[in-house]
Amino acid sequence: MPDTILPAQLVELAEKVIIANRRAGRTIAVAESCTGGLVSAALTEIAGSSDVFDAGFITYSNDMKAELLKVSHDVLDTFGAVSIATAWAMAQGALKKSHAHVAVAITGIAGPGGGSEQKPVGTVVFARAERGASPDKVVADMHHFENNGRGGVRLQAALCALELLLPDSPA
What we know:
The chain is an alpha/beta fold. It is built from six helices and five strands. A five-stranded mixed beta sheet has the order 2-1-3-4-5, with helices on both faces. Helix 1 crosses helix 2 and helix 1 (8-24) packs parallel to helix 6 (150-164).
């Protein structure tokens, strides 16, 4: 186990992700918003992760989602930053901007503010895109995590994102 300030369960899962993707011959990328680099930090805690982890994009603002990951302003304006459409576009953008075989995107509301009745604090959306997969094969889901503080929501989101990076995760 690496010497880290990150929660042990996060680093343990990141290690599983690196080992499983190395075995599968896959490289990975992440596009993070509400997790602010937490998934990337966990992955890079693992020695030798550079042969699996290709790129991490932290696009916290809508402008950066549009500029770096090419998320359409129409998508952002119509569906909002915390939506399946935005997460899917972020994952596709991460694939296009990297050499990775698979990309996972995370966007959500960590709190304590920013939530609404429709999208309360703890609402996080995930999407996974795979190079060469049919573009209509959307793997995306919205989760409503317990609002146990900003750090708690971010940790739950990072764990979920890592699970999606496992080669045998459900499609």
